[in-house]
UniProtKB/TrEMBL annotation:
The name this protein goes by in its record: GNAT family N-acetyltransferase
Species: Paenibacillus ehimensis
Keyword field: Acyltransferase, Transferase
PROSITE patterns in alphabetical order: GNAT (PS51186)
InterPro entries associated with the record: Acyl_CoA_acyltransferase (IPR016181), GNAT_dom (IPR000182), N-acetyltransferase (IPR051531)
Superkingdom per UniProt: Bacteria
Keyword field contains Transferase: yes
Stated family: Belongs to the acetyltransferase family. RimJ subfamily.
Residue ranges constituting the N-acetyltransferase domain according to the UniProt record: 10-174
Length: 174
């Protein structure tokens, strides 16, 4: 029997108004345990609006992760501009629904998002800031060639400090 991990295919699709339901499905205690927990309705709707508008503003891209061939939405991924240590870089982040975790979906989607950011040729570096307590996201960074820079503190959610690992990917490298 073939290993299902290698048979899976994903596609990333630009975030759209219709993806609000997916955002609700991602807004759970289990999904956000490393990010301060679920957001309020007001914050969730504001996040959705930012996701819909980010590409038009030219400050990044957000995508839904779609499992093929079923076309089922199973997560999200994106990258956005942030100021980090005196320069503007892309930050990336992702989430895959619990039933689909551990199958390589986030890694495949992140590789596609990295390719999108590279094609823009806008910023040299992309950073990921997974919690020090999130081994799965840290492993994805390693698999995709991010360089571990250091442990750091990030304010997230606003008003809270989160201990993270700073991973950096050189988008200009081949």
């Amino acid at each position: 029997m073939p290993d299902e991990t290698y048979a899976l295919q994903v596609r990333i699709e630009p975030w759209a108004e219709a993806d609000l339901d997916l955002l609700y499905r991602l807004n759970t205690r289990e999904m956000l345990e490393h990010l301060g927990g679920p957001e309020t309705e007001e914050r969730l709707l504001a996040r959705h609006k930012r996701y819909v508008e980010i590409e038009r503003k030219g400050t990044g891209r957000m995508f839904g992760i779609v499992l093929l061939p079923s076309h089922e939405a199973v997560g999200n991924i994106g990258y956005w501009e942030r100021s980090w240590q005196g320069e503007t870089v892309y930050e990336t982040g992702w989430g895959v629904l619990p039933a689909y975790q551990g199958k390589g979906i986030a890694t495949m989607a992140a590789a596609a998002a990295i390719a999108s950011a590279k094609a823009e040729r806008k910023h040299r570096y992309m950073h990921a800031f997974p919690s020090v307590d999130n081994p799965a996201s840290n492993a994805i960074c390693r698999k995709l060639g991010f360089l571990f820079v250091a442990e750091c503190s990030i304010e997230y959610p606003p008003g809270s400090t989160m201990r993270c690992n700073d991973w950096r990917l050189d988008l200009d490298a081949s």
